[in-house]
TrEMBL record, chains A, B, C:
<feature type="domain" description="SnoaL-like">
    <location>
        <begin position="16"/>
        <end position="139"/>
    </location>
</feature>
<dbReference type="InterPro" id="IPR032710">
    <property type="entry name" value="NTF2-like_dom_sf"/>
</dbReference>
<dbReference type="InterPro" id="IPR037401">
    <property type="entry name" value="SnoaL-like"/>
</dbReference>
<dbReference type="Pfam" id="PF13577">
    <property type="entry name" value="SnoaL_4"/>
</dbReference>
<protein>
    <submittedName>
        <fullName>Hydroxylacyl-CoA dehydrogenase</fullName>
    </submittedName>
</protein>
């Protein structure tokens, strides 16, 4: 099974709710194509690793570019995507960072056509506090419909 | 992009959790066809605006009637619907009301047939406190599979 | 309509968040096939009743066995399942136990094929506190695509 922390521990309810709220804003920014504001929810050298990516995306500039690219693709396809995080577990690492493991859904809706479940994923984030807010230092996403590949970053 | 508030700000964790709990009860009432109890979670003159509605529904009586109508339609179709809110952001407006922007899913299950994703929506609510509880003063729903139309109420 | 408590009452925000966190860990354990750890989130004589089960499953050993069986079936089918709880309402019973009513989704993803919405369910749990944590004393699941059958356990 996964090596990800399955326990939800040493985290206050306040911090747990803060993580829920962080992801809500994070996903609204992503789905609205707010590239820079979304990238700013990562650390300056934050990484994003996912099966569809040839290599990990590293740093806010590259993260923002990847979202602009994705938004343009969805625009061209006439589709709207919505990202949902749920079943969130949060554990504190020995270095004080937060290890989050949660489920992630992507829904896709073509204009005029039926909405569909696009992806079911597991998202493993390392969150750190910067400037009073939470930031994603590393993200590792696996897709349930694809074999899990070895982790390369984070 | 949307003009809706994307930031989740000036709201305590307690209030954020209260909004989560409000929507859970609100949706159970809706999906159980509890028309009057559901309508009572709106203000007396509360409004509901959605693409499928020719005009905004205004006031508890009309809101309850609309739900009875929908429940009868689902009963006739032999379908059960479930409404989910998630990725909830809450901001305080200058007038003290709460501006909520969240995602809303509708799942449909015909008896004996496969369940399906029915709708993917964005819900923008204005919530106010009345009699100790939260109430919906206005709701504006957009469907991801339909063009966004100009807002008429709220 | 359901006789389940629809109100979310007499429960602190802290306890509500604890229930959210409990279900997140509970579902990660279930979906990872962690049979014993998942069964340990029930009371020793905990019961699980669902339409697909000929009779209620009772006790941790039987609960763990049922999950191992399900995990083997999914493995053979090359599918991954993810369970989501949402729209959670929590009420305190006269005996001090917690009566939870929430929605439950199951997503299924065959390796190499499209993910799909597998089930839409309503889950009614009675939760009690044991050894500092919450435990499921009884679970009653109904599927939206099947007629509701009379309750046999719990």
């Amino acid at each position: 099974m996964s090596n990800a922390p399955l326990l939800d521990s040493a985290v206050s309810d306040q911090l747990y709710v803060e993580v829920q709220r962080f992801y809500a804003v994070h996903m609204h920014l992503l789905d609205e194509g707010e590239a820079e504001r979304w990238a700013a929810t990562f650390t300056e050298d934050g990484t994003f690793e996912a099966p569809a990516l040839d290599e990990p995306v590293r740093g806010r500039a590259a993260l923002a570019a990847s979202i602009r690219h994705g938004a343009a693709e969805r625009e061209a396809a006439g589709e709207v995507h919505r990202h949902w995080h749920g079943m969130i577990t949060v554990a504190v690492r020995s270095d004080g960072a937060l290890a989050v493991r949660c489920y992630a859904l992507v829904f896709a809706s073509p204009k005029g056509g039926p909405s569909r479940l696009h992806r079911v994923c597991v998202c493993e984030d390392v969150l750190v506090r910067e400037g009073g807010g939470l930031r994603v230092r590393s993200r590792y996403v696996t897709r349930d419909d694809m074999p899990v590949t070895a982790r390369r970053a984070g």
